[in-house]
Amino acid sequence: MSAESVNTTEAFIKHPFRLFLGLIFILFCYREWVVLSTPITLFYDEAYYLGWAQTPDWGYYSKPPMVGWLIAVTTAIFGNAEWAVKLGAPLCYSLAAILIYKTAEFLVDSKAAFLSGAIFLFMPLVAFNSLFITTDAPLIFFWCLCFYAFIRARQSNEWQWWLIAGVAGGLGLLSKYTFILLPVTFLLYAAFSPAGRQLLLNPRFWITCVLALSFLLPNLYWNYQHDFISFQHTAEISHQDRNSLSFARLAEFWGGQLFVFGPVFLIYIVIRGLKRQPKSDTEKLLWSLFWPTFIVLSLQAFMARANINWAGPAYIGASLVAGYYLSQIKGYRLVIAGLIINMLFAVSFYHYSTVTDALGIERKRGSDPYKRLLGWPEFVNQFQPWFEQYPDHKLASDSRKLLAYFGYYIAPQDFKGIALSDDNYIEDHYELKYPLSASTEKNFLFITEAKDATKLRQYFEEVTLLTEQTLAVYSNFSRSARLYKVSGFKGVPEQ
């Protein structure tokens, strides 16, 4: 072994956390560089959430408020640039990685901590989600913080840790309603461990749970004021396409998890888990952190449908389990193989256009993961002259996607576009907060992909086509929309 490698090993042994922080910093800078240099423009959900951020509230149409609050903070500091809108995502995942490190260090040792943190950082789901601000970013962060505070409170029984756990739990509930699955971890842990049963007998545990739930009360009141619209939407998403039980959907969901966590690490912990029952109390606790979310989402996939990323919080536990097991074996070949494969997934996604150009592969509608993002700034800009010509006309549309993209990319920005609905059923935040039927505006610039002048005359007294624009994205795919000047809203015709 060379003197240089000996020094590197000694540095790792003496300062593993410093090295881990360096790894986080490098990945954070790299991911920000990808966003800026590619560039990774806004997905319409991000533009939609940015609209929420303009009016911070206790709830929104489809989600609790945390993602809107987070974007409000980053854009208040750095402005509305795309990278600033997205900034909360890499920050949350970086902080979550630190908490995973500290959790593994507290439960096992620094070697398991470094491995668990690295596995989480290089997880394909984290690599992908670090480029886009979604509800998963604060959900994962507060999940990690709450669990870390719980294990510290379990050992010390100090009020400060119980309070941190309660606050983190409450903020987690305000991030995404699926956070309610985290307490199931401790119920499962109690079923397999005497230490877990002792935890449930501690009144401070239950006080903490009540504290966490109390954070949800303002959101519940907001929902009460809006006919529990968020829960209606969540239920509809969960039951969508519910026709019959499907093993095919379940198999597809399980297969997708290989690309969520990474095939090497997922196969490894599955095989290791099947070979022996968890023996140590730490094993039982970490597996309990994984199974509830994974089982619930698997049942959801079997009975209706579940996107492969919905089980994301389960892989906090999976990262800790993998790091725990891998720290006990000699050598690093399996770790290196797993990290390299996950890095290849990330790099091929981050630099998709460069990779496909190098391989001579033509990007088309069915083969480009960036299809839904590409061309929107250029497309919206094609309509800019008419918005400048009619500055007193309000942006309106029958499409959430168009309201979100035009609201962000048009100048001046307009995050309160007016929504036209074909019926009285509320389908998005624009229809909830800015419906055409309640608008005091009289004149509109109406952007649509679907409606022609004949259909619009059913809603408006005056309809004038200003322009129809098309932008070719690929040889087999283009974006098109028509812009109308409309006025004299007549109401929604009876169906």
Polypeptide structure, described:
This protein is α/β, with parallel strands linked by helices and 495 residues long. The chain folds into 2 domains: 8-350, no CATH class; 376-489, no CATH class. It has 26 helices and 5 strands. A 5-stranded mixed sheet has the order 2-1-3-5-4, with helices on one face. The longest helix is centred in the middle third of the chain and has 23 residues, at 281-303. The radius of gyration is 25 Å and the shape is globular. The model has no long low-confidence stretch (mean pLDDT 93).
Task: Offer a concise description of the structure.
The chain is of the alpha/beta class. The chain has helices at residues 3-14, 16-37, 44-53, 66-78, 82-86, 88-107, 110-121, 124-129, 136-156, 159-173, 182-192, 194-200, 203-214, 217-225, 229-239, 247-261, 263-275, 281-303, 314-326, 333-350, 352-359, 376-381, 384-389, 400-409, 429-433, 453-456; strands at residues 394-397, 418-419, 443-448, 460-474, 477-489.
Main β-sheet, in a few words? 5 strands, mixed
Structural class: alpha/beta
Average pLDDT: 93
Overall tally of structural domains: 2
- Helical run tally: 26
Residue ranges: pLDDT <50 for 5 or more in a row?
A: none
Distance between termini?
79 Å
Strand portion, in percent? 5-15%
Across the major sheet, the strand order is 2-1-3-5-4
Radius of gyration: 25 Å
Helix coverage percent of residues? Answer: 55-70%
Number of strands: 5
Form type = globular
Membrane topology: Multi-pass membrane protein
Protein name: Phospholipid carrier-dependent glycosyltransferase
Subcellular location: Cell membrane
GO molecular function: pentosyltransferase activity
